[in-house]
Design a protein that fits this description.
Blueprint (H helix, E strand, L loop, with lengths): L7 H46 L3 E6 L4 E4 L1 H7 L3 H4 L13 H13 L4 E8 L5 E10 L8 E8 H20 L3 E6 L4 E4 L1 H7 L3 H4 L14 H14 L1 E9 L5 E12 L5 E9 L1 H16 L9 H18 L2 E9 L2 H8 L1 H17 L6 E6 L2 E9 L2 H14 L4 E3 L2 E3 L3 E8 L6 H17 L4 E4 L9
Helix pairs in contact: 11-12
């Protein structure tokens, strides 16, 4: 039986068509691959941008605690250069007494099926303590090394804001001045007890009303026009004003009004404070005190300490004299504070403050930077030994137990010393070097002092 075969020219045509089809498919695949690569690159860019711009710290840890990656926000929280942190042990940046807790947390992060979280205290190179919350999720799979993704949130700012808000509320409630807060439409939203006493109107009667509730009729329209012109232009106004008491009595007061704006610059509130001349002076004194002094111990705070240190450096440089800076850190204070409670800890801080003040001259400065961290300025010293003698005097003052609420507490301190001009020419250098020296004595057993620049074989 004869077979039917396709003519040779048809075979060649089909082969050519197939070849063209293959080339078209290959070109289409290339285009798809290029588009996929472009989309992948865009996704990678968006991830990198998001990784570095989120307002929380983000880092990756391996199961031995090494930092494999960290974003800019995380590095900024720790006060360190991002490039120098990669590959380093995260535990190195924690306060010493927090390290066992971190090791337990790391073990839990890699062996728990759920998210692990903890709160830890980090010490920055500047010597400041930051409370951080870590939340980690272990990445499962065969990937090596085993890693967990960790979010790091700075709790210090939130707690400082909470404390500031609480302090502001207490100040407003206890203020001798009448305080009235209105919304952007100038309707009263809040008044304090002094306002109620001064005007005769209760908070319930005042809230929701206009401040015109107090108008005495003694001021003409031009007076209020000038007031609002200053508020709109300068954001504040102050002057004497006559108000009318609920009883009808008219009386003069000094009124200060401030405009409150949000981040976008829009007006959200107006705050008015009524006071007489004597009260006004008292308010200014109190605001000055809160700005420059520690609320617990009454010592200069960080701001006043740095101001005094800069002034002392200028005087020492001009007079070709030496000065000393000391960084004093109480040993194991956090453990005492956590065990006995914050009220007990506050009482202990006030007691040790008095002991340190007794070791210093009238011209010296003792400041509290926060927590259990204190600093000292000895503005003029004849030689380095004078600073060492003061440090030893402070150490000796703690040899006798401190009695708090009937309990005998044995407290010790670690002191770092830096000397101008040998150890630094400005406030930052001297404070950082004193902090580094303090850590040196912590490493060698605590309860002593160390001068910046001493060799490892030097014993305090």
């Amino acid at each position: 039986m004869p077979t039917h075969r396709k003519p040779p020219h048809l075979d060649r045509q089909e082969t050519s068509d197939l070849h063209l089809l293959d080339l078209a498919e290959i070109e289409a695949c290339k285009l798809e691959l290029q588009e996929a690569q472009r989309l992948l690159e865009e996704a990678r860019y968006r991830y990198t941008e998001l990784f570095d711009t989120v307002p929380v710290g983000f880092l990756t840890l391996d199961d031995s605690g090494h930092t494999l990656e960290i974003n800019q926000a995380g590095a900024a929280m720790l006060g360190r250069d991002r490039a120098h942190m990669i590959g380093k042990q995260f535990i190195a940046w924690l306060a010493e007494n927090e390290r066992p807790l971190f090791l337990k947390y790391l073990h839990k992060a890699f062996h728990s099926a759920t998210k692990a979280s903890t709160e830890l205290t980090v010490k920055t190179p500047r010597g400041t303590l930051c409370e951080m919350r870590l939340e980690s999720v272990f990445t499962k799979g065969a990937v090596r090394p085993r890693v967990c993704r960790t979010v790091m949130i700075d709790l210090s700012s939130a707690r400082e804001a909470e404390q500031a808000s609480s302090l502001a509320s207490r100040v407003i409630e206890s203020a001798a001045e009448g305080i009235m807060i209105t919304d952007a439409k100038n309707m009263i939203v809040s008044v304090n007890p002094a306002f109620e006493k001064s005007t005769g109107y209760s908070a319930q009667e005042a809230v929701g009303k206009s401040p015109s509730l107090l108008h005495s009729g003694r001021h003409d329209e031009s007076f209020y026009q000038e007031m609002w012109a200053n508020l709109n232009k300068l954001g504040q106004w102050q002057g004497e004003i006559w108000n009318r008491h609920k009883s009808g009595e008219i009386y003069p007061e000094w009124l200060s009004i401030s405009t409150v704006r949000n981040a976008k610059g829009s007006v959200t509130n107006y705050v008015g404070i009524f006071s007489d001349a004597h009260t006004q002076e008292h308010v200014l004194e109190r605001l000055h005190y809160l700005a420059y002094y520690d609320g617990l111990t009454g010592l200069p705070n960080r701001r006043l300490f740095l101001d005094r240190l800069s002034l002392s450096i200028s005087q020492a440089r001009r007079n070709h004299q030496q000065l000393a800076v000391m960084f004093v850190d109480l040993d194991n204070f956090k453990q005492i504070n956590d065990t006995m409670g914050h009220r007990f800890g506050d009482a202990l801080l006030m007691s040790v403050t008095e002991r340190m003040k007794a070791c210093l001259r009238d011209g010296d400065t003792l400041a509290r930077l926060g927590g259990d961290e204190f600093t000292v300025i000895l503005p003029t010293i004849p030689q380095t030994e004078a600073a060492i003698n003061v440090a030893q005097k402070i150490i000796d003052s703690y040899a006798i137990p401190v009695y708090v609420e009937g309990n005998a507490v044995q407290i010790t301190a670690s002191i770092g010393i830096s000397i101008f001009p040998e150890d630094g020419s400005d406030a930052d250098d001297l404070l950082n070097h004193a902090d580094m020296a303090m850590y040196k004595i912590k490493q060698t057993g605590r309860n002593g002092y160390w001068r910046h620049g001493w060799g490892d074989d030097r014993k305090a």
